[in-house]
Structure formats: C-alpha cells, structure tokens
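S2.1 Query sequence (SRPBCC domain-containing protein)
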Amino acid sequence: MPVTDVQHDLDALTLTITADFAAPVERVWEVYADPRQLERVWGPPGYPATFVDHDLVPGGRMNYFMTSPDGDKFYAYWDVATVDQPKSFTFKDGFAVDESFAANPEMPESTQVYEFAEVDGATRATFVATYADAASLQKVLDMGAVEGSTLAINQIDDLLAA
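Output structure tokens follow.
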C-alpha cells in the first residue's frame, strides 16, 4: 500500500498524507495530468469520479463529481494555482453545490499542495491540505477524509502497474 503516513494537526490546520509509489515521478504525474487516469483513482472504491473539466495549468479549473453506490452525486472543484510539472502543483479544493460547480459556502475549502520527489528510483508523494480553521479541518476529518483519501491513493499502485 503506497500510503505510509497520515498526520493531522488541528493547530497547524493541516492534513498531510505521504505515499510511496514504485514508479518514476513522471509516471505518477501522468495520473494527475490525464483525467481518464485520475478518474480511476480519485475517490474511494465504490465512488467513481467523473472529471467534467480538467485544466491542470495555473489558473485552470477541474470540475468533477463522485457517484455513490446508490447513484447520489457529490460535486467538487479544484482551482489550480501553480504547476511545476512533474514536481508539484497547488490548488484550492472545494465542495460544489451541484452540477453548476459553484462553491458550496457551507462546506470547507482547503489549499492543497501536491509534491512528487524521486527517492531511489521511486516516487514519494506528499499531499498537504490546509484549512482556514480547526472547525473546517475537524469537519472533513469527521466526514472520513483520512479513510477516503487513503483508500483512493492506495488505488494508484494498480493503475501504475497496469
């Protein structure tokens, strides 16, 4: 399983997940750069993602939804801030109200930093989410963000091996 560490810090307002993949950095980057590959691993098993928009460039927007086993759809977006291919990218991650992908002001938004570094021919990925306040971080923790993110990230190994 690629996830090797998960830490949350209510004082620093962060959730940090570290994962190691047995693939070069460029191959791991491709997972995020290609919406069809990203759909195969974004979201926990049983909640497939569909990326409606995928523009991984500074100022770009990613709109997607996940579909539950019961057919319920959960909408979200990424507003891409920076891209340093294949080493890192940053974005605002938020929940959307519906298929319009307008931000849901009742749900937390986070700043995400995804970094990929070569370690002994493999890739160490560090995913850091920073929230505006402890209540927002606690809300996503209560929603199962650690479990869901870990399950999602652990799917990447199968994709990389395919």
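The first helix runs from residue 25 to 33. The chain is about 25% helix and 45% strand.
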